[in-house]
Amino acid sequence: MEDLFRYLDDHLGEALRELQELCRLPTVSAQGKAIEETAEWVAARLHALGFEAEVLPKPREGNPVVYAYQAGDSPRTLLFYDHYDVQPPEPLELWSSPPFQPTLREGKLFGRGVSDNKGNIIARLYAIRAWREVRGGLPCSVKFCIEGDEEIGSPEMEEFVAEHRELLKADACLWEGGGVTWDGRPQLTLGVKGLLYVELAARTIDRDAHSSWGTVLPNAAWRLVWALATIKGPDERVRIDGFYEQVRPPTPQELAAVDAMPDEEEETLRSYGIREFVAGLSPREARRRHIFDPTATVDGLLSGYTGPGPKTVLPAEALAKMDFRLVPDQDPLDLLEKLRRHLEREGYGDIEVRLLSAERPARTPVDHPIVQMARETLRRVYGKEPVVVPSMAGTGPLYPFVSTLGLPTIDFGVGYPDTRIHAPDENIRVEDFLRGAKAVVALLEDFARAG
User: Fold this and answer.
1) What is the per-residue pLDDT for 60?
2) 299 plus 237 within the same structural domain
3) Is residue 26 part of a domain?
């Protein structure tokens, strides 16, 4: 491994410049920006590394997927899943430097997508390049599936995977990327939560009115706030009938893995400027809840006048965006119907519920052989015991890869706890980027030998 690691050390500057070039493309899927340009950029880089690469459409809607394949010495095949799209950069005024002008300072690279997920794409290509340049080829066969709308819920991804089942056939999958803990231990994540994302809309009158009419006219903002208050209580429990019915209890191995995770809750509280978690949860309770519990979150509210100074208005319309993070075996479409029935029963059947995104949860078992193999890989590269996380608290289109393709899936990457993905000043530490690439180099060899 030392010859490969030395190559990565010697060519770090080149890899960072390539990452900066990719991150200059404003690939905001929510706004439809730079999609085709970025897909072609990624496909060209893969082709230059010896891959058979092509840009494939999704079945009906959604952005194109970059697919690539390269044969290796081992008959085993490792599939890399990544995405080339990024989150919107707003609010722009909170960035220390322009989001699409990636900037190096104090050992960190700042810019939208430097971690999520362009940084992980480049780290993986950097590892592939090391194998080809130093050893002349890959130890195992490698496929890439890089989509362009993960940040808007991966529309049609289940259909795409089903349609291209043979093309994507592999022995295991390395997911888009994670990072290290506050104390530098690599995290090995084995699953994702699902997602139900909805828009709730209230309309009470034909047009906004003077607020004096609050005596007799219905206010859309109040109507929506009252409806939202029926969905979740101050005890943090979701009040939709049947919401928790399908929740699969964590296994003893999953509980043990979470209990073995480092106690970083105080750091988390400090980083968000608060003193305690909701409901007075203890650190252990918070950790278990964060991994294993579903959520109901109001993401945004819009109604009436919110500009500077007063404006006395009774709003005719109100809008809320809401997401529900789901755990195995919850079904987002089943819960969508339960949400609609709940609002009807509570007297808010007039609230329009629009589905924006739905993804199912998925996990790889903690005791799967590939998990042990990856733990040994990460232990060797980082010199520290990896932290096994049964599921990330976020969401990705993992379900069809685990269910349709039957792939055990693991996840590690180039981030760290203050990476600030989805927020202003997204960043990575250069040392984490380098170490993450070395972990991919080592994984390729260990995976080939395991077969």
Assistant:
1) 86
2) yes
3) yes
Assess whether 53 and 122 both reside in one domain. Answer: yes
Of the pLDDT bands very low, low, confident and very high (cuts 50, 70, 90), residue 451 is: low
- Say if residues 69 and 161 touch (Cβ distance below 8 Å): no
Q: Could you tell me if residue 229 is left (phi over 0), alpha (psi between -120 and 50 degrees) or otherwise beta?
A: alpha
For residue 15, give Cα distances in angstroms to 7, 210, 256.
11, 59, 38
pTM comes to: 0.89
Give CA angle at 274 (268, 278), nearest 5°: 85
Considering the domain architecture, whether residues 178 and 200 belong to the same structural domain is answered as no
Q: What is the CATH number of the domain that holds 124?
A: 3.40.630.10
pLDDT per residue as tens digits for the range 239-267? 999 999 999 999 999 999 999 998 889 98
- Summarised one tens digit per residue, pLDDT across range 157-185 is 999 999 999 999 999 999 998 999 989 99
**Within this chain, do residues 348 and 435 fall inside the same structural domain, yes or no?**
no
Looking at 359, 386, 408, which one is the last position of a domain? Answer: 359
Per-position b or e across 291-317, b if 16+ CB within 10 A of its CB:
bbbbbbeeeebebbeeeeeeeebbbbb
User: Does 393 lie in the same domain as 318?
Assistant: no
Q: Are residues 330 and 385 in the same domain?
A: no
Structural domain range at position 159: 2-192+364-450
The answer on 21 and 90 residing in a single domain is yes
Residues 355 and 380 in one domain: no
Residues 392/409, Cβ–Cβ less than 8 Å: no
| CB-CB contact of 112 with 100 (8 Å) | yes
Distance of CA 174 to the CA centre of its chain: 14
Establish if 257 belongs to a structural domain: no
Work out the burial of residue 29: count CB atoms within 10 Å of its CB; fewer than 13 is exposed, 13-18 middle, 19 or more buried.
buried
CB 398 within 8 A of CB 70: no
Residue 86 dihedral angles phi and psi, to the nearest 5°: -135, 170
